[in-house]
Structure formats: C-alpha cells, structure tokens
C-alpha cells in the first residue's frame, strides 16, 4: 500500500511511538489507499461502498435534511456494522470514523454526554490500527483525541455535582474492602518488587485485606461461571476478572474490591479507599441539567423527571476512571452486588471476541466498555440527552482521574489525559514496558514519593 503511513501506533494499548527524528515522514497521498485492500472482507461486506455511504450521510448536513437527517443516516450505518460487534473489527477505521462523525453531530447539537460516549466507543477501533493521519476515512487521530479531551473537561463540572464531599481519611465503620492485584512477573522484576511492596505498605497502614497473585497457578478456575484462565482464549489481561469474581464469592464477604494493576502505585497514604467509594457512590442522584421540580410542570416534563430523577436509582456498583480515549481498567472499584457478579460473567464471556474481533488489541478494556456503554449509547433518547442525563449504565460512576488513577507523563501526553500531580491518589504507568530501565526508574521514584509522604505523616 503506497502512501499509507501512520504517524504513530499503539503499543500495549497506550503508548504512541513517534517517528524517530531525522527521517522525514513519507508523503501522504491517501487516494493511494485502496479500501478493498485495507479492509478485505471475509463476509462479503463492501467496505468501499460503506465509505461512499458514510461520506454521503455526513454531507446530508448541507442538504435539505440538515443535521438531524445526517445523524440518522450515520446512525443507520453504525447499527449495520456494529450489530454483531465483533464484525466491526474487520475495518477499524471505518467504524472509528463513523463513531467520530456521530460525536461531531451530537456535540454540534450540544449533546455532550452522547458525543463523548461515541468518542469512547470509537477509540476501541483506534487501538488496533493506531492514529492515522493519512487516511481516506473521515477521521484524523489528532481530531479525535482533542474531541475526547474537550468533552471530558466539559462534562467533569457536571459530574462533580453528584460527588459527595468527603474527607480523604473517611472510613465507613464495618465496611470491608479488599485490595486485589496480580504481579505475576519474575521474582526479581522491579515492577513486582516495588508494586507488591507499595500495595502492602498501603494496605497495612489502613488495615485493608490484600490479595496479591504472583503465580498463574494461584488463580482457581471458577467452575460455576465457566471462567478458566487456561482456556486458550482469554489473554492474561482477563485474569483479573476471574480473580475478582473468586474474591467476591469468598466468606466472610467483602463489601467492595479495589482492583489495582501491579504498575499502579498508591501515592497518597493519607487517602482511604473508603473516601473514594463514598465520593462516588454516596450520592445516588445522577448529575444532569434538569433542575429541581417546579410548580405546574406539564406531563411531558413530569415523565422525563420520573426517568431522570427516579425516587430510588440503582446503587452504584462500579467506579471507573476514563481518560480522553475511554476506560482505563488498571484501577477500578467494585461493590459486591448482584449486578457486579453478573457483570463479571458477561465481561468474561464477551461475545465480541470472535471472528475479526478475536485478537483485537486491549480486548479486556474494549469488552468491559462494550458491556457498559454499547447498548446505552445506541438507544438514542432526545429528551434524555437534552438534559445531559448519563449514558453509561446506571450502576457505573465515572471518577475523576485524580481520585482513581492518573498517568506517568508519556502516556498522559499521548492520550491527552491527566498526568500524575501531587495529591492524586494513584499513579499508573500503562504502556511503560516493565522490563525497560526508564520505567523501572519511574516505579522507584513514585514509590519513594509515597514513602516520603508516609514518613512525613508519622
Ligand atoms: C495490536 O497493536 C500492535 C502494535 O501497535 C500491532 O502490531 C498489532 O498488529 C495489533 N493487533 C491487531 C490485531 O491489530
Ligand atoms: C447529589 O447529586 C445531585 C445531582 O448532581 C445534586 O443536585 C445534589 O446536590 C447532590 N447531593 C449532595 C448531598 O451532594
């Protein structure tokens, strides 16, 4: 494929490799990119035709049909290619650009939550092919990243309205929390030594139980849920699902579990996990733009209010952090609820891991996000969006990165997301290769900051 170049691509999901200085980038002539070559179909699907239809649907904005007509036409295309979600991986940029087109038109109408949901879903398809800046598809990696970043920062102030103000040292008496991680690296790997020590010191300080898996053999298959890490289908990223399911089934029972990757390090010894749980699950009311009830509301308004401000909304079961590009599941909090047990089973048995979707990159993150966002993002509801009611399933709360996990500088920059700053709870190093000395140095520095703060507390 002449003229087809990538500015950069994703490695282990997160780190973009920039062109090495010196060599000038090849010229971009995307008319040389043959879609039938880029996306050959094993299912007789005509991606070239889809390409024409997508441009046509987008251009309807300028014809008599207007934004609404265009949106419906693009939505129709998206339904067609994502109905069997695994199939959409056959032509990742086609789907990413369809999602991006929708995000643009919803943002244009001021429906920011819906627009962000589409950006986040679209990023699932960027992870396989990288950010293309030279592409016949109507999306540029840079534009998509900026859209994600701007939408996240527009929505944050709204979400903050339902965050319960909580002291960092808050403890709920009798609430049982377990910290769970897998550090199954070689015994002398710095990531394992530093990660396990950091988690141990933090857990001991607050009296949280800690489960550290250091060997694959410690993960027992969960027969009732048909989870078995040796099934040959689930990559190591999925082991956490099996492990957390097992721990949630234990007696005595835990109320919450904090999942933390081995390369995610506690940074603020003074903050409890309880405080984060309280902030993001203490107020069940959804943050929306629908104001308080006023006298003499019409029936339409009342029925919207009944849906958007239900008397007893479901309790929060899952607290995740998203960055500009979607969920990062290196750190999350899960309540021991019926919903959570069911969710873990659906996550493990995701039906998107087949056909062209079988080996897609970051499959643990995309299957999680697909379960939490796909159906709800596709159920358009104009009255709902007009008041910016949440699009994630109601059991999910999205936390600000500083309260759950922010990133080391390189990844923060490449995903236009939050770089760890003093005061942030956890520093995560996604995309930094644990066997590389600069990454090992970063773990050490982070852990030393944590120990220094601990010293200062005492
Ligand atoms: C996943 O990403 C890597 C690195 O960017 C790439 O080499 C690989 O082909 C990708 N996998 C798939 C299934 O596209
Ligand atoms: C709970 O969240 C709602 C919606 O954002 C907000 O209006 C309300 O003030 C919050 N309540 C408390 C106690 O923070």
TrEMBL record:
Keywords: Glycosyltransferase, Signal, Transferase
This protein's name: 6-mannosyltransferase MNN10 (Bud emergence delay protein 1) (Mannan polymerase II complex MNN10 subunit) (M-Pol II subunit MNN10)
Keyword Transport in record: no
Source organism of the structure: Durusdinium trenchii
Lineage: Eukaryota, Sar, Alveolata, Dinophyceae, Suessiales
Signal peptide annotation: 1-22
Similarity comment: family membership: Belongs to the glycosyltransferase 34 family.
Top-level taxon of origin: Eukaryota
Pfam families named among the record's database cross-references: Glyco_transf_34
């Amino acid at each position: 494929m002449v003229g087809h170049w990538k500015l950069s691509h994703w490695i282990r999901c997160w780190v973009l490799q920039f062109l090495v200085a010196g060599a000038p980038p090849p010229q971009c002539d995307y008319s040389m990119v043959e879609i039938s070559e880029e996306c050959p179909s094993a299912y007789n699907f005509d991606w070239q035709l889809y390409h024409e239809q997508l441009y046509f649907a987008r251009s309807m904005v300028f014809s008599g049909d207007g934004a609404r007509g265009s949106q419906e036409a693009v939505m129709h295309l998206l339904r067609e290619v994502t109905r069997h979600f695994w199939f959409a991986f056959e032509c990742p940029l086609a789907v990413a650009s369809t999602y991006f087109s929708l995000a643009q038109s919803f943002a244009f109408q001021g429906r920011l939550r819906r627009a962000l949901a589409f950006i986040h879903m679209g990023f699932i398809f960027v992870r396989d092919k990288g950010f293309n800046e030279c592409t016949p598809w109507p999306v540029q990696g840079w534009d998509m990243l900026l859209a994600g970043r701007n939408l996240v920062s527009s929505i944050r102030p709204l979400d903050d309205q339902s965050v319960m103000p909580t002291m960092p040292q808050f403890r709920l008496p009798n609430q049982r929390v377990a910290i769970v991680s897998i550090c199954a690296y070689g015994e002398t790997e710095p990531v394992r030594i530093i990660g396990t020590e950091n988690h141990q010191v933090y857990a001991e300080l607050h009296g949280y139980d800690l489960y550290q898996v250091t060997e694959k053999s410690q993960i027992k298959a969960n027969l009732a849920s048909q989870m078995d890490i040796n099934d040959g289908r689930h990559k190591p990223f999925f082991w956490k699902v099996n492990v957390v399911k097992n721990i949630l089934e234990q007696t005595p029972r835990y109320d919450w579990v904090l999942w933390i990757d081995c390369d995610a390090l506690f940074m603020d010894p003074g903050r409890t996990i309880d405080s984060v749980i309280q902030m993001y699950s203490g107020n069940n009311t959804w943050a929306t733009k629908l104001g308080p009830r006023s006298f003499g509301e019409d029936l339409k308004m009342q029925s919207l209010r009944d849906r958007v401000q239900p008397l007893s909304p479901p309790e929060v079961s899952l607290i995740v952090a998203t960055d500009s590009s979607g969920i990062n599941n290196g750190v999350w909090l899960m309540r021991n609820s019926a919903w959570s047990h069911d969710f873990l089973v659906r996550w493990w048995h995701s039906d998107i891991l087949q056909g062209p979707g079988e080996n897609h990159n970051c499959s643990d993150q995309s299957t999680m996000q697909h379960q939490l966002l796909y159906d709800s993002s596709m159920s358009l509801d104009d009255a709902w969006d007009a008041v910016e009611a949440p699009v994630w399933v109601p059991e999910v709360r999205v936390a600000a990165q500083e309260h759950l996990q922010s990133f080391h500088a390189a990844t923060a920059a490449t995903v236009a997301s939050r770089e760890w700053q003093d005061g942030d709870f956890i520093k995560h190093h996604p995309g930094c290769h644990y066997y590389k000395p600069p990454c090992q140095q970063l773990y050490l520095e982070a852990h030393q900051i944590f120990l220094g703060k601990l010293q200062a507390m005492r």
